[in-house]
Amino acid sequence: MARNSYLFTSESVSEGHPDKVCDRISDEIVDLIYREAAAAGMSAWDVRVACETLTTTNRVVIAGEVRAPESLMDGHGGVVAAPFEKAARDAIRSIGYEQDGFHWETAEISVLLHGQSADIAQGVDSADDANSEGAGDQGIMFGYACRETPALMPAPIYYSHKILEDLAAARHAKVGDAGKLGPDAKSQVTVRYVDGEPVEITSIVLSTQHLDESWDSQKVRSVVEPYIRKSVGDLKIADDCVWHVNPTGKFVIGGPDGDAGLTGRKIVVDTYGGAAPHGGGAFSGKDTTKVDRSAAYAARYLAKNVVAAGFADRCTIQLSYAIGVAAPLSVYVDLHGAGKVDEAKLENVLGEVMDLSPSGIRRTLDLNKPIYAKTAAYGHFGRDVTDDGGFSWEKTDLVDALKNAI
Predict the structure, then answer these.
(1) Nearest in space to 381 (alpha carbons), one of 72, 149, 213
(2) Residue 398 and residue 354: Cα distance in Å, rounded?
(3) What's the pLDDT tens digit per position in 261-298?
(4) What predicted TM-score, i.e. pTM, was given to this entire model?
(5) Is 70 a catalytic residue?
(6) DSSP 3-state of 33
(7) Catalytic residue at 260?
């Protein structure tokens, strides 16, 4: 029997966390290749990117496989390093790193990208046309939605993200003492649920880098607490809420200078904060033939539309794929014991209202474009659709089609 009253916790990390710096650089590479492909007349359907980034003290290493326009390739199986190095430096500068141990201008950047393996490429390229391309890899992907927040996201991860996003905005705008915060930060929010509904926050953890070495934990709390209280909106902070703000004390050395970073190491932060299953695949640094990314977006899109249609208050969807095969191997729907429609019927309907092949997903959600750098921090889900088509998987434009099909 499901529990109705409990505590649940999720964490988030800021854009300046070492792993998120890597995610941002990897996604800037994805966007760079999509932009250059468009400028060179190369079809976006032919773009391939699998990019991993490592960061440490004043060092960035970018590695992986790409299929990019000739303007980015060196003619010997590698890439022209300069554009990729510039993308990395611009990302680091945008995040705000200008400290001795990690500076956008002085960090050593190694670009070790090369052409995509023909053995991997054939799984996608063997299709007769882009309409029937195979999946870029095997794997399972999950999507989730619930009615706990306006964005149809679980409350703990939604507010963990919101706290850091609002603090980052104040830092970038140099608003008062918030302008003395550093880029590296982590948050954690514990929510009390009663009868399955989030009713109050019982603990808040925030660790944030600060540039003024004289600050202690009390000073940091005085700076961040007003932002935190505003970020959580109408969700009550319990009178006896436990606060841990910079619990270890001073936090001046941050980012890759304090801890090495890697692409794809914050996959639960990127999704549902542990409130839903995760297939295990990372998103950043991958073009959307990689179903780790595109099918996870599709599963979220479908789950959100199922909840928005009123079929359930919570919905989990699993999709599975095999490399080189276009059709999903399975579609699974769980309405958590409180659905208003038959789950088996809904599983069949989902494939009717949306083409779940990799090419169908890319076409439906218009994914063949440079929209990915903005996904690298504060979650891939629960975000607002942007004017350039970013976060298209957050739309609820399938509601009528689902209702008619059911």
Answers:
(1) 149
(2) 9
(3) 999 999 999 999 999 999 999 999 999 999 999 999 99
(4) 0.95
(5) no
(6) helix
(7) yes
